[in-house]
Amino acid sequence: MVTAPTGPPVYTVVGNIHPWLLQPFLGYRLSLDRFYVQGFSSVAVPTDERQVLGMFNDIGAGYWLYRASGSGFISAIIPTVEAHVTTPLNHRNVNDPITIPDFVALTAGVHIGLANRAMLTVGVVVPVTGRTCSPSRRRRSSISAIRRSEPRTQRSGVSGGALHRLLRCAACAARTCRSTQSLCRWRSTAPDVRIN
Hints:
Helix content: 10-25%
Radius of gyration: 18 Å
Shape: elongated
Largest sheet: 9 strands, antiparallel
């Protein structure tokens, strides 16, 4: 996958950082009747060496609790759990212009099939490692992110856009690094990204 730098740059003390991201990935899926396991591994390689080189791993499992045999409004109910792991491969020093901590987040949710034409998914994500903030701030950040959908980011693809927001700026401006608020223009809800 290739993510173009369609949004504003990251403003840091060492200059603006605005790279392309090249992200090769490997995905897999194993289905056994009603049970399935799926996931992916990828590496985000920026075209600017000041940006973080990151590795992303995901594994999820689900179970088809209900499958409609005919045509009904609810066509499937599939509880699911996932684990997301982010590992920075460079820029681990707090003095680097951009850093991302190692972190793991667990997701639990349910996919609801609607008339065999659409899937409604509801879930909860809980960070289990890395820097976290209070639940009230997490909730406030999530609501803010829903109100601020960025059309430019959506054009670059869901995964690419989310990755760009993760690597760009963010949660630290709302949660931890008060000194960088004037530099941050994205204010995403990505896990804590520190910009010095």
